[in-house]
């Protein structure tokens, strides 16, 4: 039995310390969970459905945010919550576990990634977590990106060109992206995408002593993203479209070069799905640093400007709420794949960890019979009954 994503939502992402400064990670997660529960109810078309469990991914765990978020969303004391901390891969790790739970037929499982760096660190200083034990390499992520670029010969100019494309693609996709948003605190758009000019970016000083600059490193951000998953039989009964989870993987790699873990994770997830890269229509790679994305795409044999690679931009443009970014990659696939197309989401994380999820977009209708898409203006859960 397999799992299907039947709803996908996220908040707009805000620069850390700004719009969401008064909100905690479970507040951000609860807003997304509430919207997902409403979407599931709409998808079930009158069937009495209750959330079975919440799995939350956070980049800097604080207690059990999944449990707090489930309670804050009004699901009741009987709905359990489990928190996953896999640093920047937390959101995708939460989806892996949620898919396994949902596939058992236990009922809808909600996977959410959330991050509120501001609420825990009011002075703006985020304590450095240990990604590896004593005796292992454990570089800060900025210097690690510099080392990765040097190791693979990824030039500063290539990193800058990728960052410029990320912002440009995010600006073009801004209206389409917003159709998947849960507005929060008066925010309706991602705060950071802007026009980047190559001649301006070229003047930035190195951020960590190498080739990475502020333009080619993602900014700290606050936000949440989530997905609702059910087993295939339930999705068929409801006539739901969405994303069928074809395969997932988590891999370990050299902790000295954590950004290099993404490509092996993609390969492992594709093997799990019994597919190869030629079958992939869209690849969403976490953009913590431009060097990380280019390391992944080049390892996979893709051109830097491949149209399948982060076509709506990524964290370089919209910011990087560590726990939420991985789930947001799947939200992007939910809104960007046509029925029958295959997508892959992958994140690399501190300690040398890569997590990837492979999905195929499903047409709405029982047995996969295509139906006419519902216009995006129809409101919450618009893509439950037809992918654009």
From TrEMBL:
<feature type="domain" description="Thiolase C-terminal">
    <location>
        <begin position="247"/>
        <end position="360"/>
    </location>
</feature>
<dbReference type="InterPro" id="IPR016039">
    <property type="entry name" value="Thiolase-like"/>
</dbReference>
<dbReference type="InterPro" id="IPR002155">
    <property type="entry name" value="Thiolase"/>
</dbReference>
<dbReference type="InterPro" id="IPR020617">
    <property type="entry name" value="Thiolase_C"/>
</dbReference>
<keyword id="KW-0012">Acyltransferase</keyword>
<dbReference type="GO" id="GO:0003985">
    <property type="term" value="F:acetyl-CoA C-acetyltransferase activity"/>
</dbReference>
<dbReference type="Pfam" id="PF02803">
    <property type="entry name" value="Thiolase_C"/>
</dbReference>
<dbReference type="InterPro" id="IPR020616">
    <property type="entry name" value="Thiolase_N"/>
</dbReference>
<dbReference type="Pfam" id="PF00108">
    <property type="entry name" value="Thiolase_N"/>
</dbReference>
<feature type="domain" description="Thiolase N-terminal">
    <location>
        <begin position="4"/>
        <end position="230"/>
    </location>
</feature>
<comment type="similarity">
    <text>Belongs to the thiolase-like superfamily. Thiolase family.</text>
</comment>
<keyword id="KW-0808">Transferase</keyword>
<protein>
    <recommendedName>
        <fullName>Probable acetyl-CoA acetyltransferase</fullName>
        <ecNumber>2.3.1.9</ecNumber>
    </recommendedName>
</protein>
<dbReference type="InterPro" id="IPR020613">
    <property type="entry name" value="Thiolase_CS"/>
</dbReference>
